[in-house]
TrEMBL record:
InterPro entries: Endo/exonu/phosph_ase_sf (IPR036691), Endo/exonuclease/phosphatase (IPR005135). It comes from Rhizophagus irregularis (strain DAOM 197198w) (Glomus intraradices). GO terms for molecular function: catalytic activity. Residues 31-173 form the Endonuclease/exonuclease/phosphatase domain. Gene3D superfamilies: Endonuclease/exonuclease/phosphatase. Pfam families: Exo_endo_phos. This is Endonuclease/exonuclease/phosphatase domain-containing protein.
Length: 173
């Protein structure tokens, strides 16, 4: 079984919080902002790291690893999409533009693509938000990307974020 983990940069001990796996190299895209924990990361299980050919990142919000396996090319993209709000509008648009430039390159070069991370969107809990809040999910859907957990879950996808009064689903693969 192959394991790929999307991680926001948090103060945690990976060896105690992710038991029973063989940790391989980690790849990080750190933010240049004053917030010390902003960024995204990907951990690959050993020995996948030897297949990494290209590493690209953007503003601590996108990280792309290109892996080559004989005749198969795979891009794994981890993202941290900003929460809804007017102060994040330009960051959101810039992130989408960069992500879709990577996706265009992947399509033109016959890559398989996996996108994962913190999308900061819960289609059920956030159903009263403006349509612009769902822009990224709609654009990915228009390019035939599928929400892996929703697609394969019989009882519906599980929450990925828990808070005092409930839970929501902000993370996707």
């Amino acid at each position: 079984m192959t394991l790929v983990f999307p991680l926001r940069m948090l103060n945690l001990s990976l060896t105690t919080n992710i038991p029973n796996i063989i940790l391989g190299p980690s790849y990080w895209a750190c933010s240049s902002s004053s917030r010390p924990h902003d960024g995204v990361g990907i951990l690959l299980r050993t020995p996948l790291h030897k297949h990494v050919q290209t590493i690209d990142f953007w503003n601590g919000r996108l990280l792309k690893l290109d892996l080559f396996f004989h005749q198969t090319k795979i891009s794994i993209i981890s993202l941290y999409y900003p929460p809804s709000g007017s102060i994040h509008h330009s960051i959101s648009n810039d992130l989408i533009a960069k992500l879709f430039s990577w996706l265009d390159h992947a399509r033109a070069n016959n890559y398989h693509v996996v996108i994962l991370g913190d999308f900061n969107v819960d289609e059920i809990a956030h159903s009263n938000y403006s349509p612009n809040h769902f822009k990224l999910l709609r654009l990915l859907s228009s390019r035939y990307f599928t929400d892996h957990q929703a697609h394969f879950s019989i009882e519906g996808p599980d929450p990925t974020f828990y808070y005092t009064n409930g839970s929501s689903r902000l993370d996707y693969i």
